[in-house]
Amino acid sequence: MADATALGMPSVRTPRAPQRIGQSYHIRTFGCQMNEHDSERIGGLLTADGMVATPTLEEADVVVLNTCTIRENADNKLYGFLGALRAVKNRRPGMKILVGGCSAQKDGDLVMERARWVDAVFGTHNVHRVVDLLDHVDEWGPVTEIWEETTSTDDFPSYLPAQRETPHSAWVTIAIGCDNSCTFCIVPTVRGREISRRVGDVIGEVRSLAADGVTEITLLGQNVNSYGRDLELNGRRPVFADLLRQVGAVEGIRRVRYTSPHPKDFKEDVALAMAKTKSVCEQLHLPLQSGSDRILAAMHRGYNASRFLSRLEMARDIVPNLAVSTDIIVGFPGETEDDFAATMDVVAAARFDQAFTFQYSPRPGTPAATMGGQIPKEIVQDRFDRLVTLQNQISLEKNEAAVGGVEEVLVEGPSKKDPTVMTARTRGNKPVHAPGRYEPGTYLRAEITQAAPHHLLGRVIS
Ligand code: SF4
Fold first, then answer.
1. What is the CATH number of domain 166-280?
2. Which of 35, 102, 178 to mutate to test the pocket of ligand 1 (most atoms within 8 A of CB)?
C-alpha cells in the first residue's frame, strides 16, 4: 500500500492490532455503487482486524448486509433475507449479523424489533464504526447506532482501508449526500446533505490508488456537478470540471469515469474538461427520468425536456464518440398516456446508447408516495414494455454502428457464460466479449465483429 500521506492524502485510519484473526466475514451488498464502495470499506476494516472474506454466507462468523431502500420491495427483500438468516443463525448461534446501509439508516431500531436475531444496526454515516460495533456486541450485546449526518469529512468512508473486488479499477467518493429534492427519491433522507471532499484529499487518494496499480477511476457522488459548492480553495470555489482535469492528470490513471451528473447542473465546462483530458472516457450517464415537462415538474427535477436535449446536444458536439446512458422512471403518479408519449418522443430523439428503465414504486417518506394518481400496475407494465422495446432497438442500432471499428478495451476477466471468452469494456463503458484468455486489467485493441442491444462481440487484434 503506497504511503498515502506522502501523496497528499490524510492518513488512512490505521486500525488497532488485529483482534479477530482467522474469523471469517461475508458481505451482501444491495443497491448502488455508493453501497458497493461502502462495502469495500467495511471489508477493508474487517480484514484489517484479522478476518478473512468467505464467499459462503452460511460459513461466515460475521455476516454484514449493506442495504438499499430505493425500491418499494427493497425493504421486503431485506426482512425476507433476515428471515432466512434466522434459520442459519439457529444452526450457528455464534454467528454475528450486522445490518447497515440505507434501509438501516431509515429504519434504525425497527430493524431489531422486526428481526431480534440481528446483532448490530448501523447507518450510512458511521460505516467506519463497524469494528467498534462488533466489539460492543461481544462485550455488551446487540446495538443500534444511527448517526443523523456525517459530522466531519474525516468520517468519509474513503479514509478507510478497502477490500476492492477489482485490483485495476476503483471508486473514489468526491461528495456524499444530496441537496436536491426529487419527489420520488429517498437519498437526501438517508444520505443527508451534500458534503464535498477536499480536492487535495481526492487527488491524494487517486495518487495512492495509482501507486497501487489502479488504472481506472470512477468518481462517485449523488450529483457530481455540484461538487465543491460547500468548499473554498484560495478564495474560490473548486468546481467539478477542474477536479476532473486534475484526476485525469494523475500519472498511471488511463481511464476516468464519473457518476452521477444532474442534467440541470451539467454545463459546458465539464464537457470541455472531458474532451480535453485524454484519460477521461467518452461516456456520460445523464438521468432523464421523464420526457414530460409536466411530470418533470412534479418530480422536482429542475429542467424540462428541451433543456435536457440541448444539454445532451452540447455534450455530443464537444465530446467526440460520446456514449450516453440514462435513467427513466415509468408510471410516476399522475402520468397520462400523453406524458408517456412525450417520454417516448424524447427517447427517440435522444437516441441513448443505453437506458436503465424503472417502474415507479412509492417510497415511504418521499413526497411522491402520497401523491394522487398512482398508476395501476398493468398500465405501468405495458408502458415499461413499450419503452424497453424502443430503447433496445436504438441500443442495437447504436452498437451496430460500431461493427467493423476498433476499440480500446480494458479486460475485466473471463466471461461468466464461457471461460474461453473474455469480457472487457470500451471507453464508452460497453461490454465486449472476445475469444481468448487475458489478465484482468490488461488494455487491448479489439475489432468489433458483431452487435447486440447490450453488448458487442469482437476479436483481439493487439
Ligand atoms: S439528484 Fe434527485 S434522484 Fe439524485 S440523489 Fe438527489 S434527490 Fe435523489
1. 3.30.750.210
2. 178
